[in-house]
């Protein structure tokens, strides 16, 4: 045996290095199987194969790496092929199929050893006198697809006695060509092109599994129908490739809620006559970024794809391994730098040996790392092409793979029949079966009762039954409620209130407010509760926008210049006027003002039919009956108060009206709840956490309705451990109240955030992309609502109404929620975050909610928020977490699920989040907290010499996560009502004293708190064992303190 040594060409080196990292994987095995029918002379065929192999250098190399470098050795006069024959003629058809499959898998899945040829295998299977299988497998380093096509053609010509037109290429010619390229101006231009290409980071598909699986490939072979093939061919042969690329983008990018896709396009790199005839590996990979926009027509999209492909093709010679190694090209988590490998193969394979003929198909090594690989193979003459789709199960599970395959063919079929003027956004990106399945989520609409019919019914059947209990213990029967509605309605009517009039209610929640709301609706007029707990400027703005006919208030000064202002007690005076008739048509029932994106509140108009649809549906969903007791905890200006006030009287039950001041003391609230034993309680996660810190004991099997923001599973566990049944609620004000209610019976160990779902009757939900295209399960998109509970409009804001409400392709009126979700297979939704919580950092589009969900999946974190801050003119992610520090274990937890660019650069430990008046996370307060933090975390405020006051400082630091300025208001430093309760309990525990329920609110700064405690402790006769009530004189509070006191 003689040996000739030479260096590796660029293309060989790329494959060698990749194989060297995973030598036991068949990832770089290629293969094909021919099925031959007719009289095949096996001996003659094997002689033809042996002859061609002997002539070609590619089959005689072994590839080595040692201390001197990487090189290949050519073995002369060696047996460097692996050929076996099998006689399967005695097998039954079923056993034959199994054996053919077994042998095919064996040779394609067995790894080659590069240092030990042969690197080509052939199995010849004789099944009968006129049926044969020829199974080939080879390592990619010796032949690419074109190389095997040439090899196959030469074997065919040899067998059939045809003189080959190909001339042999000398190895040194090829090596000289490589050397010339590497030192050429062409190479420098290629490098400049690729540097510009990777300047903007690419947002790749991310795997679900952090570590690659064994045998990750799921293969789906699709033989195109002749009809579809002919339609595509009629579009022009040159355009078929780009129609396929467009279908790939719509399927694997647009339908997944992504923006754009990166193709990996195999290229032969055979740019001259010599290389075109060489049986060898020259193939490389070119990258194409699809920049097709939904506003493009099909014609424009095809043109863009063609232009971008041509540009990349010009620079195909440059090895992409250098992009990673030298140009710092970023890859995904499994080192892939494209989303879809797309190979458009139209090389003919002639499988006619003498009088026999056959077909050839590719084999699958089951180990492709690409997220998706799609091969278009037009190899057999007069036969429709085969589309070989290989989907990586590290990215998509089996069900998703089947769905994506059908979706791709559905899109391709639609494109084949479409006019080229059709815009991309108008192309359905879901199959008909998916759309049909999606429609099954729609809930039926049943005939509904209206609120006043229900009140009259209960007044007639159970007149003395209690309908309302106020916080003072006063009870009001259904008969009393019905009578008062009529009296107040008559008095309102005497002031000119009629259909479409507007009444503003500016006083604290009580029985009189409830009656005034209903009396206003009795006349077909609308009411608007205006909370006392807000700046006068904001209240004035609401009054100005509302322009009410009447303002009803109490003794509080009203921030309005309107002359028609009345004290609420005036409307309850009996009169001799005739009873007013109830308006029975459709009317605007109420207008609630919510925070607007411009900072100014906007009014959401809800009709009586929307309200009544909601009450019917929610009572049915929760199985409410006349034994229920539901406390009204939310402000009347907050939409969820509709359920608390009206759902109980809708079913003949009791509503417990609590004044807002009661809720400023968690302990007082707990006492009232313990006293009345409510069956259903509705609150935000923050309010629930506050209640759980008191001595409140829920009634057995009572129901917790949790909504307003994402619900951590730790909270669910705590409530269930307390004996409650938990329902997760979702719905914006624009859908009346809740549009979904989902009972949480079991918790998933993989879901940090409880899913939302359980559509109410008459409601529908979709996931759309930004171009109003329906998205499938698992794709991130905006939650769109439709149905009978949608708001009428934004009051006097036509443009905002047009932006938020629209009519979809089905003719349904819809509302854009601005919430980013993904539909689950079970019909529920994963809540990811707000649309306005998307950000872009270093070119990456990031969903902050997705990061927050991963953080919350850690068992020791109960609350989390991620915000973007600008630091040194650079944007960066800051994480806020509760009850846990950023240690190595926590860091590993994040790294196991998130790419590096999605892991916050800094974490701030806080006890809990500041919340706004709706009980949701106050992200502005978190930003202010971050800005207020000392530059050096170890810096301490001047500590007191007194042990008690030093202890108070430590309590502040424990609860807030940092020690603030002694003069800073607790609530401005990041505190909220829940934290105030925690601080109070901590101080009481440490000092062995009892503080007043409003201690923190009355002493909101560290300095005043320390002084009051010090003064009280100094006058106390004992210091260590006595319980000392500490109470101070009322001190001025900040506006934020006033707001939080009313919050909880």
Automatic annotation (TrEMBL):
Keywords: Phosphopantetheine, Phosphoprotein. One of its GO terms (biological process) is amino acid activation for nonribosomal peptide biosynthetic process. Pfam families: AMP-binding, AMP-binding_C, Condensation, PP-binding. One of its GO terms (molecular function) is catalytic activity. SUPFAM superfamilies: Acetyl-CoA synthetase-like, ACP-like, CoA-dependent acyltransferases. GO terms for cellular component: cytoplasm. CDD domains: A_NRPS. Signal peptide: none annotated. PROSITE patterns: AMP_BINDING, CARRIER. Residues 1031-1042 have a biased composition (Basic residues). Residues 1013-1048 are annotated as: Disordered. Residues 1015-1029 have a biased composition (Polar residues). InterPro entries: AA_adenyl_dom, ACP-like_sf, AMP-bd_C, AMP-bd_C_sf, AMP-binding_CS, AMP-dep_synth/lig_dom, CAT-like_dom_sf, Condensation_dom. Residues 943-1017 form the Carrier domain. This is Carrier domain-containing protein.
């Amino acid at each position: 045996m003689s040996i000739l040594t030479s260096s590796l060409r660029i293309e060989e080196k790329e494959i060698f290095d990749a194989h060297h990292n995973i030598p036991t994987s068949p990832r770089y095995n290629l293969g094909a199987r021919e099925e031959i029918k007719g009289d095949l002379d096996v001996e003659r065929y094997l002689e033809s194969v042996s002859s061609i192999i002997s002539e070609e250098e590619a089959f005689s190399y072994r590839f080595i790496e040692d201390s001197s470098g990487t090189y290949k050795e050519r073995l002369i006069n060696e047996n460097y092929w692996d050929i076996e024959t099998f006689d399967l003629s005695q097998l039954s058809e079923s056993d034959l199929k199994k054996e053919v499959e077994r042998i095919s898998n064996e040779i394609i899945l067995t790894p080659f050893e590069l240092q030990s040829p042969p690197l080509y295998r052939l199995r010849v299977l004789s099944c009968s006198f006129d049926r044969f299988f020829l199974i080939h497998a080879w390592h990619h380093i010796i032949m690419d697809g074109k190389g095997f096509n040439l090899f196959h053609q030469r074997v065919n010509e040899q067998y059939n006695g045809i003189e080959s037109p190909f001339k042999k290429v000398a190895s040194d010619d090829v090596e000289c060509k490589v050397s010339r390229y590497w030192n050429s101006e062409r190479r420098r231009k290629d490098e400049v092109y690729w540097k510009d290409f990777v300047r903007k980071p690419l947002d790749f598909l991310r795997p679900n599994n952090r570590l690659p699986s064994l045998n990750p490939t799921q293969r789906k072979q699709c033989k195109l129908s002749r009809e579809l093939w002919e339609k595509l061919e009629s579009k022009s042969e040159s355009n078929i490739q780009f129609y396929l690329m467009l279908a790939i983008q719509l399927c694997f990018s647009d339908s997944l809620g992504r923006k754009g896709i990166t193709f990996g396009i195999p290229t032969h790199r055979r740019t001259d006559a010599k290389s075109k005839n060489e049986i060898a590996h020259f193939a490389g990979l070119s990258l194409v970024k699809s920049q097709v926009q939904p506003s493009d027509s099909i014609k424009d999209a095809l043109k863009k794809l063609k232009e971008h492909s041509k540009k990349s093709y010009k620079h195909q010679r440059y090895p992409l391994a250098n992009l990673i190694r030298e140009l710092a090209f970023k890859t995904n988590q499994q080192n892939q730098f494209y989303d879809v490998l797309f190979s458009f193969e139209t090389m003919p394979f002639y499988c006619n040996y003498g009088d026999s003929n056959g077909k050839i198909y590719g084999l699958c090594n089951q180990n492709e790392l690409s997220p998706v690989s799609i091969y278009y193979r037009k190899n057999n003459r007069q036969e429709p092409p085969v589309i070989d789709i290989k989907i990586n199960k590290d990215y998509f599970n089996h069900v998703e793979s089947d769905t994506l395959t059908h979706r791709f063919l559905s899109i391709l079929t639609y494109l084949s029949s479409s006019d080229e003027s059709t815009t991309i956004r108008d192309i359905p990106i879901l199959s008909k079966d998916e759309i049909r399945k999606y429609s099954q989520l729609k809930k039926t609409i049943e005939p509904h009762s209206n609120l006043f019919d229900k009140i009259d019914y209960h007044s007639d059947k159970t007149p003395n039954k209690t309908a309302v209990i106020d916080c003072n213990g006063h009870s009001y029967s259904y008969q009393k409620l019905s009578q008062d509605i009529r009296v107040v309605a008559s008095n309102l009517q005497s002031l000119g209130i009629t259909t479409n009039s507007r009444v503003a209610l500016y006083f604290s929640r009580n029985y009189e407010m409830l009656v005034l709301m209903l009396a206003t609706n009795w006349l077909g007029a609308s009411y608007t509760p205006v909370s006392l707990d807000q700046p006068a400027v904001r209240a004035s703005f609401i009054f100005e926008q509302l322009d009410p006919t009447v303002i009803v208030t109490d003794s509080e000064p009203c921030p309005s210049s309107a002359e028609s202002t009345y004290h609420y007690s005036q409307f309850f005076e009996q009169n001799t006027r005739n009873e007013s008739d109830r308006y029975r048509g459709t009317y605007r029932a109420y207008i609630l003002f919510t925070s607007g994106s411009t900072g100014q509140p906007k009014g959401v108009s809800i009709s009586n039919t929307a309200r009544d649809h909601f009450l019917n549906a929610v009572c049915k969903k929760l199985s409410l009956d006349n034994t229920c007791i539901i406390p009204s905890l939310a402000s009347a200006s907050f939409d969820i108060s509709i359920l608390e006030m009206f759902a109980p009287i809708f079913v003949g039950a009791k509503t417990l009206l609590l004044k807002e001041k009661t809720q400023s003391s968690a302990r007082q609230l707990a006492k009232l709840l313990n006293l009345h034993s409510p069956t259903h309680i509705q609150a935000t996660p923050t309010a629930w956490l506050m209640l759980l810190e008191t001595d409140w004991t829920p009634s057995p099997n009572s129901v917790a309705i949790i909504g307003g923001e994402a619900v951590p599973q730790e909270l669910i566990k705590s409530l269930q451990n307390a004996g409650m049944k938990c329902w997760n609620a979702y719905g914006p004000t624009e859908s009346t109240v809740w549009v979904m209610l989902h009972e949480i019976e079991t918790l998933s160990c993989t879901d940090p955030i409880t899913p939302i779902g359980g559509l109410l009757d008459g409601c529908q939900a979709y996931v759309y992309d930004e171009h109003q295209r329906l998205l499938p399960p698992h794709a991130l998109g905006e939650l769109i609502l439709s149905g009978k509970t949608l708001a009428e409009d934004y009051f006097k804001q036509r443009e905002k109404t047009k932006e938020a409400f629209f009519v979809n392709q089905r003719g349904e009126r819809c509302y854009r929620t601005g919430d980013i979700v993904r539909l689950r297979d079970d019909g529920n939704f994963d809540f990811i975050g707000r649309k306005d919580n998307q950000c872009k950092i270093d070119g990456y589009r990031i969903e902050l909610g997705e990061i927050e969900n991963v953080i919350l999946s850690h068992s020791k974190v109960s609350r989390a928020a991620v915000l973007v801050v600008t630091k040194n003119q650079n944007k960066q992610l800051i994480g806020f977490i509760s009850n846990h520090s950023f240690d190595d274990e926590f860091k590993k937890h994040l790294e196991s699920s998130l790419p590096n660019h999605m892991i916050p650069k800094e974490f701030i430990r806080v006890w809990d989040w500041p919340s706004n008046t709706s009980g949701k996370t106050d992200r502005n307060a978190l930003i202010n907290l971050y800005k207020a933090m000392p530059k050096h975390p170890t810096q301490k405020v001047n500590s007191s010499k007194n042990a008690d006051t030093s202890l108070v400082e430590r309590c502040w630091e424990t609860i807030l996560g940092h020690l603030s300025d002694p003069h800073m208001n607790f609530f401005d430093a990041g505190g909220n009502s829940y934290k105030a309760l925690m601080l109070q309990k901590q101080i009481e525990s440490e000092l062995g004293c009892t503080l007043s329920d409003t201690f923190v609110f009355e002493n909101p700064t560290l300095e005043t708190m320390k002084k009051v405690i010090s003064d009280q402790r100094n006058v106390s006769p004992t210091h260590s064992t006595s319980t000392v009530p500490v109470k101070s004189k009322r001190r001025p509070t900040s506006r934020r303190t006033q707001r939080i006191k009313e919050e909880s």
